[in-house]
What we know:
minor pseudopilin epsh fold, four-stranded antiparallel beta sheet, 9 strands
Amino acid sequence: xxxxxxxxxxxxxxxxxxxxxxxxxxxxxxxxxxxxxxxxxxxxxxxxxxxxxxxxxxxxxxxxxxxxxxxxxxxxxxxxxxxxxxxxxxxxxxxxxxxxxxxxxxxxxxxxxxxxxxxxxxxxxxxxxxxxxxxxxxxxxxxxxxxxxxxxxxxxxxxxxxxxxxxxxxxxxxxxxxxxxxx
Length: 183
């Protein structure tokens, strides 16, 4: 009786590995783009929620409450921040002092940055005890290699927040003037 052996040859394994490698190399850019889009959506959602928390705190405590992006030293900044804080600016010096309560301090992103464009070039948004914003402004979340995934969260003078949208269908969120977000 003749014995039959079955199994994979070295050639079969090499072909299988080659197919997996080609498939993985073709899907890697799409996966990176997908992950960048998810990070941007998550960051804009987090910013939106923090703005709602700040406004709700202002109303419930009947106090003016500020929210700002933080630089590496923990000071309010308009450019390149990765963290945000909600605080009560008791002495109205536009900064977080040691004796002022910080209600929330969160990390938006560990590797990418956000920008605030507020009225009067302020480094913060302040909500009044009635829920209004003392200045309008927009927070932008940007990823340098995926600028088409930039996101915008805007605060109106009425204290309402809304996320920017892609109004022309090109896949890029626009600023209020219709131009693509510039990070």
